[in-house]
Amino acid sequence: xxxxxxxxxxxxxxxxxxxxxxxxxxxxxxxxxxxxxxxxxxxxxxxxxxxxxxxxxxxxxxxxxxxxxxxxxxxxxxxxxxxxxxxxxxxxxxxxxxxxxxxxxxxxxxxxxxxxxxxxxxxxxxxxxxxxxxxxxxxxxxxxxxxxxxxxxxxxxxxxxxxxxxxxxxxxxx
Length: 174
Fold this sequence. Notes:
Layout: H1 10-31, H2 45-48, E1 54-59, E2 71-78, E3 85-92, E4 99-100, E5 102-108, E6 111-115, E7 125-126, E8 133-139, E9 149-154, E10 163-168
């Protein structure tokens, strides 16, 4: 008959202690890993810029009542590239086929302090057959967080001195 060796007594205790020591070492090494864990939440520029949009309602000036009654909206927000501002203009109730120069300006509709960025960055808004138009511009300036700005829409390239629609931009909320 073969005798089996029993793991009773001191040998069993040594093996139990050794198993616990190995498990503790593995957990300790895992906790002290040189690999950096990823953060639970990753932020992107889009997250940071969430409350950085300016908005305006566009309307024709009261002195053009009966002649022109344009309406629409505009917004400006941080652009895709760092250091740029994306501007969007939507117009409605305009003459189909029209072409309207436009731009964001510093100041207010009644107090123009100059164009925001290079005037060449603002392509004219072309009106579709249904009397609506959409134009976008990318301006190579950081989006402001404060100040006074407005969007101004002119009658045509030939009559750029006549403002046919305007809207003051509301600053971003924080």
